[in-house]
Design a protein that fits this description.
Order of helices and strands of chain A: HHHHHHHEEH
Strand order of the largest sheet of chain A: 1-2
Radius of gyration of chain B: 17 Å
Largest sheet of chain A: 2 strands, antiparallel
Oligomer: heterodimer
Number of strands of chain A: 2
Number of helices of chain A: 8
Radius of gyration of chain A: 18 Å
Distance between the termini of chain A: 23 Å
Number of helices of chain B: 9
Number of domains of chain A: 1
Largest interface: A-B, 41 and 44 residues
Structural class of chain A: mainly alpha
Order of helices and strands of chain B: HHHHHHHHH
Strand content of chain A: under 5%
Helix content of chain A: 55-70%
Chain lengths: 201, 191
Amino acid sequence: MSIKEEFTKGLWKTLPPFRLVLGLCPTLAVTTTGINGMGMGLATTFVLIFSNLFVSLLRKLIPPQVRIASFIVIIASFVVIVELIMQAYFYQLFKVLGIFIPLIVVNCIILGRAEAFASRNGPLASLADGLGIGFGFTISLFVLGCIRELLGSGSLLGVAVMWSGFEPFTFMLKPPGAFVALGILLAFMNLISSYQERKGG
Amino acid sequence: MGDFILLMISAILVNNILLIRFLGNCPFLGVSRSMDTATGMGLAVIFVLTLAGMITWLVHHALLIPLGLEYLRTIAFILVIATLVQFVEMVIQKTAPPLYEALGIYLPLITTNCAVLGVAIINIEEGYDLMTAIFFSFASACGFALALVLIAGIRERFALVEIPRAFEGTAIGLITAGLIALAFSGFIGLV
């Protein structure tokens, strides 16, 4: 596959967290607004890009028996970097995302890509893969955040957009609403894919 | 003692780790398809989480704070958890083969279960003392197991009914979890 394909596959074919059902905890927890979703997505993307790059560069040096532990150390180092950067420059967002920033280290998407892709491919392809999957994840979180924000508080990116008599659907902002919104979005995507398949074949 | 009972109720029902705090969702969707796997995973999590809660607390207070290395918390904790899981796996395999048969395949999955790291971090951020931290870890893990078994019980029944094609698999699992979470949010205000 070409570098371009490695990048674009993350945007639809293996779009996390829908196609690749991994990394659900941050997806459900922080998407109460579009901005929060995007912040979480970008922080994850940062870690994903660098962990993919370094795993790929070091893949010939890491002994196979201890590879998982080595990957976790590489990922954890970048998570600490993100934690410190966000604490210094984006303190508001850091407060909102809270515990889910250190928990990027156990986001299965990142370890999954390190194991399934970066440890078997060159640095350039791994970088493209990390960028694609990361952007896919960011867009998914942003869209889910926008939907929940629109229905739950009647605003979009902090600006009220619904008509004046709109009764906010606070259920969407609560934990149960997160599960239901993600479930319905997933079903909707399944519907589109099965329609595409029927048209294609 | 009263405080501990309140903490237990709060961790299991009101702030259920899986449904309200959203920790440990990846393994949850994978193993909640049948009752057997759900119980196995639930027991393995209770065992590892209680141990991990205790050890990470000790590491933080006896190692990181005296050395002034609190910013390395994330790295230190994940390494402790990964080592602990590997160690528990080896010990169980040698000393209790039947238990290993039952829990074996779930143990490696626990390393990347964010509930374990999440509870370890909550223990530190809430400033719990050692006893409270152990107790809170145990109670959270029980809450995880409870939610997992409840949802597995419902998902087992999906085999018997017809589900719209688009909702099959993960989608309906998520919506079920949403409904159970709605039931759990009825406990808000209990403590």
